């Protein structure tokens, strides 16, 4: 029983990281109908920005919640800018082209980020400094242990998701984003500057991925230029599972994926850990391609 | 997501002339200079480089200088095989020094054997490596010895009877050492209460550790490489696991304590050498290495040095510089006085060497015991 509950806690923590990345995928798909494969690498950049800002601002010398938040803010800012640049330079010129061109370009951007990262930063793993420490030790209920670091990350992730929800449902920007994802032309007719909204969407999604990168760097201190590949793919699967284009779906899909992965590895074999995500992808596309919370789009001819 | 295409492997060439050409002998080296086992590659390389400098400084081999061509395999098996093919067919090296890890040595060895280029591995401990053929040698002990060393230490010295094993199933070294350890430990009367696995490259081990924790082991045996071991140690502490951790020579890296922090204190691992070894050959090596590179050498550097020296002595004794002559000379290595002990090549091209058990405390590896094959 204890083991079971511990696995649930671990799974939620894993899921919240996938959720932050999946939200970016789903938002961009919503406004552009594009799977931005470079998103996983934005997450990787976030981790590295966190690393370098910790070094340059001397955050490791003052480990505290404040330091963590500063690193997160730095990462979110740089990643948002990167997201904006990628959209402007790589995707916007192809707005009118067939979707396959955009997809291939996205893969190209992804490879570019990964390998320039390797060239510039070196292919060996770097170690994230401890910019947040909990002096009180571990939190325990009997045998169940919760690392306060994991709890903090969970709280920050959920807060970011809540903020995003408020932004999307209660603000003008959010309304504009929803309008643009419904239809570009209709939104433009209503006076919404579609290009700017799309850029804003990219920046938001990238900022979330950047935050995820810093938090992952904190709990799993090993970071390297290719670290975004697998989490990016898994977050994509999570977004599809929940219904691509649907924000709540992305979070739901990510939590389900995180938990299933944890339980598979805990009770079964870790050999299939990564295969699980792709098995889920195949099953989702076979059984309910629109995802758990997605609705089918009726195309009237 | 087309990551199947690997970039060009980085390699530093100090000389590109062919083997036995003019006044130099070209020796190839393949090492993981970048990637998760980067410290293995860098340390081994430095050991070899130091040895070559010393040999060249005292006249070289029969008047010829040793030249080293190093290729970085980035920690990837396919890059290692590619590097081997390049070194053998294009650069025409007369011998290869590779690799610190068993998995990649197993990828390179068949190529060396096929082309009849002698290969010496500095620290691949999987028994299958030298079984590839008579051109494959090593200067380290093998897992059928290392496993029992650790097993005996845990059972007879530390008196722990219930052990869990956490294996890196992507590593030939880890898989073989786990199996050997398990059978020896059970033979002594111990119990393996749980077995879990992970893959090299993973960063999250909480699921496996939670499952292990449930089976209440007295200790956990983690025969993996230092990057994952460091992360595992951290997460074990975070899950409230306080039992000691044990490992093999894959732990030997200055980065282990950096990654693990305080969580690895009080853990033990088997290694090829200890910097506290009072032998004069060892201490001289430590002095030379420190003045050349500024750090105390780790086990990988010592093994690299010994592999280079064994090759050099064999080249001195060889009739000529053909593959067969070098092979025969290597096979006749007897009582080589190395930094990591005095040893000879046995009929299977493995040396009979002692192991040391080290304890990790505050970033230092403290010598606990030396176990020779006679003790088992």
Explain how this protein is built.
The complex is a heterodimer of chains A (301) and B (376). With 301 residues, chain A is mainly alpha-helical. Chain A has one domain. Chain A is 71% helix and 3% strand. Chain A has eleven helices and four strands; from the N terminus they run ααααβββααααβααα. Chain A has helices at residues 2-32, 39-56, 65-91, 99-121, 148-170, 172-182, 184-189, 194-219, 229-242, 247-267, 273-287; strands spanning 126-127, 139-141, 144-146, 222-223. In chain A, the strands form two sheets. A two-stranded antiparallel sheet of chain A has the order 1-4. In chain A, strands 2-3 form a two-stranded antiparallel sheet. In chain A, strand 2 (139-141) and strand 3 (144-146) form a beta hairpin. In chain A, helix 3 crosses helix 8, helix 5 runs antiparallel to helix 8 and helix 6 crosses helix 8 (194-219). The longest helix of chain A has 31 residues, at 2-32. Chain B has 376 residues and is of the alpha/beta class. Chain B has two domains: 11-141 and 278-345, Response regulator (Rossmann fold), CATH 3.40.50.2300; 143-271 and 356-375, Rossmann fold. In chain B, the strands form three sheets. In chain B, strands 8-7-9-10-11-14-15 form a seven-stranded mixed sheet, sandwiched between helices. A six-stranded mixed sheet of chain B has the order 1-3-2-4-5-6, with helices on both faces. In chain B, helix 1 packs parallel to helix 11 and helix 11 (299-317) packs across helix 12. Chain A binds chain B through residues 2-3, 6-7, 10, 14, 37, 107, 110-111, 114-115, 118, 122-125, 127, 130, 138, 140, 143, 145, 147, 149-150, 216, 220-222, 226-227, 229, 233, 261-267, 269-271, 273, and chain B through 1-3, 7, 34-36, 38, 74-75, 169, 196-199, 202-204, 206-208, 210-211, 213-214, 227, 231, 234, 238-240, 255, 258-259, 261.
């Amino acid at each position: 029983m204890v083991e079971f509950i511990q696995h649930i806690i671990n799974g939620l923590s894993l899921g919240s990281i996938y959720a932050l990345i999946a939200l970016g995928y789903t938002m961009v798909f919503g406004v552009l109908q594009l799977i931005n494969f470079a998103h996983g690498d934005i997450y990787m950049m976030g981790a590295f920005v966190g690393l370098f800002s910790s070094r340059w601002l001397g955050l490791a010398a003052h480990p505290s919640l404040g330091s963590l938040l500063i690193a997160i803010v730095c990462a979110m800012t740089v990643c948002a800018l990167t997201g904006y640049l990628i959209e402007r330079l790589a995707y916007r010129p192809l707005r009118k082209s067939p979707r396959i061109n955009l997809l291939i370009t996205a893969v190209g951007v992804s490879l570019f980020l990964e390998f320039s990262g390797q060239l510039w930063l070196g292919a060996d793993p770097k170690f994230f400094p401890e910019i947040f420490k909990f002096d009180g030790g571990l939190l325990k209920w009997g045998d169940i242990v919760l690392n306060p670091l994991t709890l903090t990350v969970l709280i920050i992730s959920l807060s970011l998701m809540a903020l995003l929800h408020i932004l999307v449902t209660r603000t003008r920007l959010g309304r504009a984003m929803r309008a643009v994802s419904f239809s570009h032309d209709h939104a433009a007719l209503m006076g919404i500057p579609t290009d700017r909204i799309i850029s804003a969407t990219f920046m938001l999604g990238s900022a979330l991925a950047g935050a995820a990168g810093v938090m992952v760097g904190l709990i799993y201190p090993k970071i390297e230029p290719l670290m975004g590949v697998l989490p990016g793919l898994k977050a994509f699967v999570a977004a599809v599972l929940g219904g691509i284009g649907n924000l709540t779906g992305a979070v739901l899909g990510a939590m389900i994926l995180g938990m299933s992965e944890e339980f598979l590895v805990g009770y079964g074999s870790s050999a299939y850990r990564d295969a699980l995500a792709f098995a889920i992808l195949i099953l989702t596309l076979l059984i309910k391609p629109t995802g758990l919370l997605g609705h089918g789009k009726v195309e009237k001819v | 997501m087309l990551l199947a295409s690997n970039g060009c492997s980085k390699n530093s060439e100090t000389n590109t002339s062919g083997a036995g050409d003019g006044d130099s002998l070209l020796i190839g080296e393949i090492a993981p200079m970048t990637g998760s086992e980067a410290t293995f590659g860098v340390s081994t390389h430095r050991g070899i480089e130091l040895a070559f400098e010393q040999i060249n400084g005292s006249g070289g081999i029969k008047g010829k200088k040793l030249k080293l061509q190093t290729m970085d395999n980035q920690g990837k098996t396919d890059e290692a095989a590619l590097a081997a093919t390049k070194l053998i067919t294009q650069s025409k090296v007369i011998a290869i020094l590779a690799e610190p890890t068993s998995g990649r040595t197993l990828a390179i060895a068949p190529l060396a054997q096929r082309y009849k280029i002698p290969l010496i591995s500095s620290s691949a401990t999987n028994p299958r490596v030298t079984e590839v053929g008579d051109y494959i040698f090593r200067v380290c002990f093998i897992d059928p010895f290392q496993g029992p060393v650790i097993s005996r230490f845990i059972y007879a010295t530390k008196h722990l009877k219930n052990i869990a094993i956490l294996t890196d199933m992507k590593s030939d070294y880890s898989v073989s050492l786990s199996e050997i350890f398990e059978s020896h430990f059970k033979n002594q009367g111990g119990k393996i209460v749980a077995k879990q696995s992970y893959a090299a490259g993973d960063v999250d081990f909480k699921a496996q550790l939670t499952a292990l924790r449930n089976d209440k082991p007295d200790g956990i045996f983690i025969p993996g490489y230092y990057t994952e071991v460091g992360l595992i140690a951290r997460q074990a502490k975070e899950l409230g696991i306080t039992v000691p951790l044990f490992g093999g020579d894959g732990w030997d890296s200055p980065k282990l304590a950096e990654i693990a922090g305080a969580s690895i204190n009080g853990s033990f691992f088997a290694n090829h050498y200890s910097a506290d070894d009072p032998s004069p050959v060892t201490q001289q090596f430590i002095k030379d290495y420190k003045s050349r590179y500024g750090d105390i050498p780790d086990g990988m550097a010592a093994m690299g040095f010994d592999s280079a020296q064994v090759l050099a002595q064999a080249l001195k004794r060889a009739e000529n510089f053909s593959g067969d002559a070098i092979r025969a000379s290597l096979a006749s290595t007897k009582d080589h006085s190395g930094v990591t002990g005095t040893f000879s090549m046995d009929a299977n091209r493995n040396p009979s060497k002692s192991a040391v058990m080290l304890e990790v405390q505050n970033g230092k590896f403290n010598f606990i015991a030396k176990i020779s094959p006679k003790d088992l």
